[in-house]
Amino acid sequence: xxxxxxxxxxxxxxxxxxxxxxxxxxxxxxxxxxxxxxxxxxxxxxxxxxxxxxxxxxxxxxxxxxxxxxxxxxxxxxxxxxxxxxxxxxxxxxxxxxxxxxxxxxxxxxxxxxxxxxxxxxxxxxxxxxxxxxxxxxxxxxxxxxxxxxxxxxxxxxxxxxxxxxxxxxxxxxxxxxxxxxxxxxxxxxxxxxxxxxxxxxxxxxxxxxxxxxxxxxxxxxxxxxxxxxxxxxxxxxxxxxxxxxxxxxxxxxxxxxxxxxxxxxxxxxxxxxxxxxxxxxxxxxxxxxxxxxxxxxxxxxxxxxxxxxxxxxxxxxxxxxxxxxxxxxxxxxx
Amino acid sequence: xxxxxxxxxxxxxxxxxxxxxxxxxxxxxxxxxxxxxxxxxxxxxxxxxxxxxxxxxxxxxxxxxxxxxxxxxxxxxxxxxxxxxxxxxxxxxxxxxxxxxxxxxxxxxxxxxxxxxxxxxxxxxxxxxxxxxxxxxxxxxxxxxxxxxxxxxxxxxxxxxxxxxxxxxxxxxxxxxxxxxxxxxxxxxxxxxxxxxxxxxxxxxxxxxxxxxxxxxxxxxxxxxxxxxxxxxxxxxxxxxxxxxxxxxxxxxxxxxxxxxxxxxxxxxxxxxxxxxxxxxxxxxxxxxxxxxxxxxxxxxxxxx
Lengths: 335, 305
Description:
The structure holds two protein chains of two kinds. By secondary structure, chain A is α/β, with parallel strands linked by helices. In chain A, about 30% of the residues lie in helices and about 20% in strands. Chain A has an eight-stranded mixed β-sheet with strand order 6-7-8-3-9-10-12-11. In chain A, strands 2-1-4-5 form a four-stranded antiparallel β-sheet, with helices on one face. Chain A is globular and about 65 Å long. At the A-B interface, helix 2, helix 3 and helix 6 of A face helix 1, helix 7 and helix 8 of B.
């Protein structure tokens, strides 16, 4: 069975006054129908740019995209908008980061949800209304008939994200991109939204790409995980393998900076020291070298390629994977 | 932000559930105030008078009634008096309103169409078209409008449709700038990208996503454009470049009246200036008030989101 989505060596470069910013530097991934892929990385790692490049939503001016994005056998990278428009909504849909800004403030919820139904499925007013109300019910909105006529400002953040999900799912897409769908929502609502996405994904057998900075979010809800750092894939593995056999120090650092509910109160929250590199002039060696606790001279000189490990499906980009070296920053111990 | 009232407790407080939804979010529920309605009524009143001038019992504005007193102040037979050619001033004011309103609203509408629509498209699409239109608008704005109008009208003629069209053309660059700025601030919002990602066409995004958001600007700036254009027409008329006498317009009434402002004995009639000036003043101030109140009324600020 050929995959739903196949991305090969995707590179995205933004032309800026300071020079070319290489936001995505050769990412390959593939996703099958009914599977969930997690893309994890901190702010500025290129995960949002990657997901928008896959969808073809980046502006055309000042952006260079090379490589290939194949959706159901068709090349869609750099395809004209007119062609993408036939995929957007009906084949590929996206749930955006911020539910506070991704709904139009002056249109009623009903209008926004019926819009794609009218455009793509050519439903008439009454049918669209009926479908919209059933969608609102599916995403768990109480009294959907009243909410249908509400404005976004009358709904809470969690409700708005539910509405966004309902809108994205309106035309039954086969691939759903969820770009940090829980930003700005409180923890309990986060869990509800993620569970809702997981349920809908399972019921509808959609392919889903879940983009997040939180390893905890993808741990139980994905089949495979890609860890991104500074525009590169630094580790990829099936979810269970990643957590049992992680090889890249960056993945470990990300995991360590996830707050745990089991920790006693006032446990110090661990962070990754330093900042991600400037993508307009990345360092010559491993991009994570300046912040890596296990760094050695070789790391600063040559960039490690993504190499497969002994476990099938697992690959990592590190000269000295976890377990092979010792900390070079003077501190002791691992997570 | 309105809390979501769960369905099981909502019936216990039906009034609260209903009012919290209606009062906070629906902008039409806010009060516009008495002053707004007085001003709006005046504008509607003037428009109705102008439309129905022919069927209302006004004498012909160009009829020189020699049985009426000449150059007289307000009196019972002629409520606002007569001018030096024995014409009824009230009637001339009402017919003069037609010129002001046609030029004002017509010119603003023409300006909106040839300035506003390209503004939305260029702000949304950006790129070369945007750069070109932008530069063009700056060049046109740097043009001395009155001088240009004097030359064009002198050569082309001074009928009402021509004057409306020309003034509309010259108002387009300013309208372009305002609408472009307003569109720009919405064109990069997330909800526009979200609509695009759902497969909405550019036309649909402009008409359904962006236009409702810039509508307050369109309406309020449109009314201010109407007011400005009425003044411009008055200026042209005062210079003798608007519709030709004897057809009355507020501007040419002012022009004719001003010659009698300090005339000799028995010729001095300040009413000829006061009435058209007052008519213009009242229409302009009401237009500005209505525009301003509407703008603040529909101003959905980020706080409300």
